[in-house]
């Protein structure tokens, strides 16, 4: 947007410059026009000056403010007092009417360099009054939820005007409660938690959020460091000797305990072997007491099984004989019934045949030509054409063919 305004302003200025040049040429060449041309030139020059001044004001104070990623913009109306927040975009800002501030919401770090060294300008003091330096890092950020309430009271340099006094007012007081040895080793976490608690409370009152406090390297004076190293070396030697003596004492105790354990182990082994033998003898005796009745029961069971098998075989033989006898009787009865049925069948067939012949004789007697038809039916598959005169007495048509003589 700012680049477009600059380009538009440059085009307007060029156009006014060309117009002013043309008007000057016209006035120089046409002096005969007199005062009217001179007045026109002055009017154009005045317009050009006004436009240039407006363009300069727009260039120096653009009416749009842009907020980048990770930032928050606050715009306040001087007349109505209305407050507006926006993120990642542009907003219209009218000079003399709107007051605008843009704040970065990203985390920031504060590292006080004056207290990082024991030989620095403002070293820390321990409980013994010894100067020491601490590499301290404080991470903080603006509280976006409270920015609407404190935006007009926040200074431009938050680190120097708010964070630095708050941290220094807490850190000197906290470190003065502990000795150098506690600061250097045992109370490090406790000191860090105390600093975070007090600094976080102070920063929250000004609309800031404490992300964390990191205590890095602790710088001690050279003399104290050398003495401390010597003391640590002696302590380490004494500690090593104590551990050595303890180790030897424990080895002696271990040897005595091993011998006692070996003695107890052998006794326990002998007792266990004796118990095993006694238990084995008792178990064998109890086993024999259980085995003998079991053997007797096996003998009795086999005898009963033999008797049961004998009885079963006798009953099986008797059942087989009775079955054969029943089968023979049944077979004789079946054959008798078959013979009776065959005689009955033959009797019925004879009666049916006699009745059939009787019926056929009566039919032939009533109709003698049936004999000729039957003969023709029998010879139809062997003789195709038969030419014979019919008998004069209406007798058998085949009598002539067979050579039969009339009686």
Detailed description of the structure:
With 407 residues, the protein is of the alpha+beta class. Among the domains are: 2-62; 107-220, Band 7 domain (Tetrahydropterin Synthase, Chain A, 2-Layer Sandwich); 367-401, no CATH class. Helices cover 64% and strands 14% of the residues. It contains nine helices and nine strands. The chain has helices at 2-29, 35-60, 147-150, 158-175, 180-186, 188-205, 222-366, 369-379, 399-402; strands at residues 64-67, 71-77, 83-86, 89-92, 98-104, 108-110, 124-125, 131-142, 208-219. The strands form three sheets. Strands 6, 7, 8 and 9 form a four-stranded antiparallel sheet that branches. A three-stranded antiparallel sheet has the order 3-2-5, with no helix packed on it. Strand 2 and strand 3 (83-86) form a beta hairpin. Helix 1 (2-29) runs antiparallel to helix 2 (35-60) and helix 4 runs antiparallel to helix 6 (188-205). The chain is elongated, with a radius of gyration of 70 Å. The N and C termini lie far apart (157 Å). The model has no long low-confidence stretch (mean pLDDT 76).
